[in-house]
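Researcher: We're reviewing a set of sequences before deciding which ones to prioritize for further study. For each one, I'd like a predicted 3D structure that I can look through quickly. This is LysR family transcriptional regulator. If possible, include the structure in C-alpha cell form so it fits the rest of the review sheet.
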Amino acid sequence: MELAELEIFQAVAREQSITRAARTLERVQSNVTTRIKQLEESLGVALFQRDSKKMLLTPEGQRLLVYAEQLLALAEEARQSMRTTAPSGRLRLGSMESSAATVLPKPLGRYHAAWPEVELTVTTGTTQFLADAVLAHRLDCAVVAHPGTGAPRSLDVAALGEGLDGVFLRTEELVLVLPATHPKVRLPRDVTLRHLAAFARGCTYRQCAEDWLESGGEEMRRRLSVVEMPSYHAIFAYVSGGSAVGIVPRSLLALHPDAAEFHTVPIRPVHTFLVRRSGFSTSAYEAFLRELRHD
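Model: Here's the predicted structure for LysR family transcriptional regulator, in C-alpha cell form for your review sheet.
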C-alpha cells in the first residue's frame, strides 16, 4: 500500500462518492476509480459496496479505514517533525461547542494571522466524541471538559481515554438555566420541570447536570427526561419556551442577548483541557498551544 492510495481511499470513504472525492483531491475521476480498484485487488477484498448513489464501506473497508486514519496521521506528523522552522502542514482541532464560541476565537485569529500556511480544521462535538477522535487519529488535539471534581493538577486526563495527555486551559462555572417564570431554585428538589435540554451522551456538562438533578431523590431520578439538542441556540430556545431546564457554562450564557431573562443555578466548576495523543507533537500544534496559553 502507498500513502497516496490510502489518501484516495480515505477521501472516497468520507465523501461516499468517487466524483466528490476526485473534486476534493483535485484528481480526475478515472484516476480515483483506478486507484481504488488497484487497492482492492492488492488486498484481495472489496472495500466498497457500490450502488447508483453512494459508495459505502464494506466491513473490510471499515477496518482498513481505521488503519488508514492512523497511518496518514503518523505520516503527516513525521513530515512536520522534519520541519524545524515555521509551523506548516495540517492541524486538525476538535472543540466543544461552548469552547468554540468562548475560548477559541481570539487564539485562532492570532494563529491564522501568524501562520496562514497551516491548514487548520475545526470539528465540534461532545467531550467523549472528541477524545475518541484524537485517539483514533481523526483529530490531532481537542478542547474538552474533564468530569473530575478535584484541582486541575490532580486530574488524570487518561480518564477520558487511555493514551491521552492534556494541558489545563481554564475553569468554567457550570449553571442550570431555567425559564423566567420558574420559581426560585436552591436545591435539586426545587426544580419543577422534568426535562433537561442538553447535548448527546458523552457530554461532560450533561453528565454534571444529570448528577446534580438526580441527587434530588428517587422521584427526580425516575421522572428526569433528557431532550437532546443540536446546539446551544436550541437549548436556550427550548428553555425560553418553558418546557425544560438547560445546562451551559456561564461564559457562554454571558454571550446570549437575553441572558438576564433566565434564572440560573450554580452547579459546579468544570476544568477545560487541551488533549492530544501521548507523544504527539508538531510545530503546528506547539504554535497553537502557545496561542491558547497567551490568553
